[in-house]
């Protein structure tokens, strides 16, 4: 007898308002369409700072850089290219390139984000943001999103409070703590495997991956109980 197939990535996910007390989101690639900007900034920084090294491809970025802190990403990229001493310059150049892209107005809301955040507010479900980005405040301000979140744990918070970056559970656990909600009463949303691992390790009651069919299996392997293409596939039920 064959095993039942896994749910399709396009299946909808329902948040039950009577059991989910808080919804906690990653920023890039979940709430905003800035994940591509991060990849482009890292790719261009590698080409500029390490011109003789192997270029950065999308697969390496997703597996070893996406979701992690800027310092961790730079350390990996420089170390893999035999130029570990250039990690600091690489991180600084990446940040400058990323901020330039933000100033060009290339940040945008991800599909379904605004509708879901508004729906959570109406149902009295708390909302939080956890991200390794130290530019989160700028992104939230540019998109008028700051009032949408009851708590924000970002890269600046992690630096001040010495929180470990993803895949450690520190960031989502700290966000749940700020909201005063037990992790097992929280739903977490992430598009990177490192973030999914962090949510699972933090003991979140619901872990939802955001990805297309090409990456759904990786997020499930990292600990996602559900995978959907975007927040447009997430609903709230009584």
What does this structure look like?
With 238 residues, the chain is an alpha/beta fold. The chain has 2 domains: 151 residues, HAD superfamily/HAD-like (Rossmann fold), CATH 3.40.50; 69 residues, Orthogonal Bundle (DNA polymerase, domain 1), CATH 1.10.150. The protein is built from 10 helices and 8 strands. Strands 4-3-2-5-6-7 form a 6-stranded parallel β-sheet. Helix 3 packs across helix 4 and helix 9 runs parallel beside helix 10.
How confident is the prediction overall: mean pLDDT?
Answer: 92
Q: What's the total count of β strands? A: 8
Structural class: alpha/beta
Strand order of the largest sheet: 4-3-2-5-6-7
The gyration radius over C-alpha positions equals 18 Å
Instruction: Please name the CATH architecture of the largest domain.
Output: 3-Layer(aba) Sandwich
CATH top level assignment of the largest domain? Alpha Beta
Morphology call: globular
Tell me the domain tally. 2
List the helices and strands and how they pair.
Layout: E1 13-16, E2 22-25, H1 35-49, H2 58-64, H3 70-80, H4 87-103, H5 113-123, E3 126-130, H6 136-142, E4 151-153, H7 155-161, H8 170-179, E5 186-190, H9 193-202, E6 206-210, H10 213-222, E7 226-228, E8 234-237
Parallel strand pairs: 1-8, 2-3, 2-5, 3-4, 5-6, 6-7
Helix pairs in contact: 1-4, 3-4, 9-10
Structural features:
six-stranded parallel sheet; alpha/beta; 2 domains; Rossmann fold; two-stranded parallel sheet; 10 helices; 238 residues; 14% strand; 8 strands; DNA polymerase, domain 1
